[in-house]
Task: structure prediction
Amino acid sequence: MGADLKISARKRAEKIWAAYAKAQALRSTNQRTLICDIFLESTGHYTVDDLLAKVRARDPKVGYATVYRTLKHLVDANIARESNFGDTVTRYEFALDDQHHDHIICLDCHAILEFENEEIEILQDRIAEGLHFRLEDHRLELFGRCELAKTKKGCPRAKDKPGMPS
Amino acid sequence: MGADLKISARKRAEKIWAAYAKAQALRSTNQRTLICDIFLESTGHYTVDDLLAKVRARDPKVGYATVYRTLKHLVDANIARESNFGDTVTRYEFALDDQHHDHIICLDCHAILEFENEEIEILQDRIAEGLHFRLEDHRLELFGRCELAKTKKGCPRAKDKPGMPS
DNA sequence: GTAGTTGCAAAGTTTTTGCACTCTT
DNA sequence: AAGAGTGCAAAAACTTTGCAACTAC
Result:
């Protein structure tokens, strides 16, 4: 994904956010602006803790609840996407609707890679149609071991994080 | 899925369970036997609460912890599969490894249908290979509105259950 | 008898909510 | 000034764990 695409995605996200904020009559507070900025700058999959840490680096007084509440708005505005890759924590990523991608997660090092596959999406549409569903969303997660994890030394990134599915 | 297949799946599950129990030196207690029986008889996607209710109908003294602990064993033995379809509760279903299927969930009535698609599995393998992953597991969930939900009356099964993804 | 199992209650996690105070509009 | 937004702490929802009593082997 090139830098150009990322920049324009962010610009679009900002427009969507502005429209959403206006429609919902949201007020522009420092905390909210800060959280949105940090979120839109981010490229990975972050827990609320992760994001709060980044936020507090710039404003130590921000509370958990505000991050949760702001993320809820971002999800609602279709700018953020929630996922929990087999474990108990919810992770948030910046993802506009039309940029849909899926994930492959390394069970050893917990790296999360993204991929897109048009063919699978087409098959999904066909399946939904066959079952008389109007498809609105989907979630595809692949779990495996990445190349580094396969070596005898194991993946150097491997840490004991909370449970991924067996 | 015919009754024959289900019966043989159950028989296979019982064999796997017996082998697992032996390997782990698990003891055969009334509670554990009861929970396993109820779980193996079940065909849907149940929360711990659901299962505990069924268990307590036959033995009211069984505690949460025992159900959690037994399900953990069943997951470990690859007889049960955990999923959480966008909400916060973990659901368990009886699923042997080689019977893998995916789910389509109605956002209105929360019905959960199962499907299998060989083509998608092949594409997944190809994607994982391309990214140098050894694939171990996957999770595909489609979210949409079922046929009944599309009528102007809405789906009659619709209830306000906790949040599904937007 | 030994050691795995159970049920209870307490503790842990993650997320939501009530409330007094603050800040935007 | 009105009321949306914030931070804190308490509550909620779900799951795990410590422990004394129990039970399979």
